[in-house]
Design brief:
It is a single chain. By secondary structure, the chain is mainly beta. The chain has strands at 2-4, 16-19, 27-30, 33-35, 46-49, 54-57, 60-62, 69-72, 78-80, 83-85, 92-95, 102-104, 107-109, 116-119, 125-127, 130-132, 140-143, 149-151, 154-156, 164-167, 173-175, 178-179.
């Protein structure tokens, strides 16, 4: 349950990589400690690709060279209670149509980009996360994610005071966030 890829040189120097998963064969990625993600650039600590019905819970990720948690074309995923610090890119990033993703109760500090980025994640939500964002990016960014919800997050910092940035998305909810 501990992965370090500080000196890994493989093409996919990723802490954990998962591809596949169905409603009948639900998968859990939990209680792992991952430090770094290899000497290759743009490597994510935890990466899902085409993995549906997955729970990523109670992981500790620090110093990922890419994103802390990266979801690609993975639906009905729950990302909860993870601790992510010092990721070079986003703390948690969804892309490639990640429908119904739940990002809740995570702590993300010092991500190089957005702490949480819901891109192409319709009907998804970010709730009850604690974020310390840098000054160059929003704490939570939602784009091309219709019917997304951002609620009850605590966000410190952000791009020019913009803690939550929702654009190119329709019927979204932004409520109950504490922005400092």
């Amino acid at each position: 349950k501990y992965a370090t890829n500080k000196s890994a040189k493989e093409a996919y120097a990723i802490g954990l990589y998962l591809s596949g998963g169905t409603e009948k064969a639900m998968t859990k990625v939990n209680e792992n400690k991952i430090f770094g993600s290899g000497t290759q650039k743009e490597r994510h600590a935890i990466r899902l690709s085409g993995s549906d019905y997955v729970t990523i819970d109670k992981n500790t990720v620090s110093k990922a060279d890419g994103c802390g948690i990266f979801l690609l074309s993975s639906n009905c995923v729950t990302v909860s209670r993870n601790q992510i610090t010092d990721a070079v890119r986003a703390g948690i990033y969804t892309t490639g149509t990640c429908k119904k993703t739940a990002v809740k109760k995570n702590t993300v500090k010092n991500a190089g980009e957005e702490a949480i980025k819901l891109y192409q994640a319709p009907e998804s939500y970010a709730s009850e996360n604690v974020i310390r964002a840098g000054s160059n990016f929003a704490g939570i960014r939602v784009s091309e994610s219709n019917k997304a919800k951002v609620k009850k997050n605590t966000i410190k910092g952000g791009l020019n005071g913009k803690q939550v940035w929702i654009y190119s998305s329709e019927q979204c909810t932004n409520s109950g966030n504490i922005c400092k």
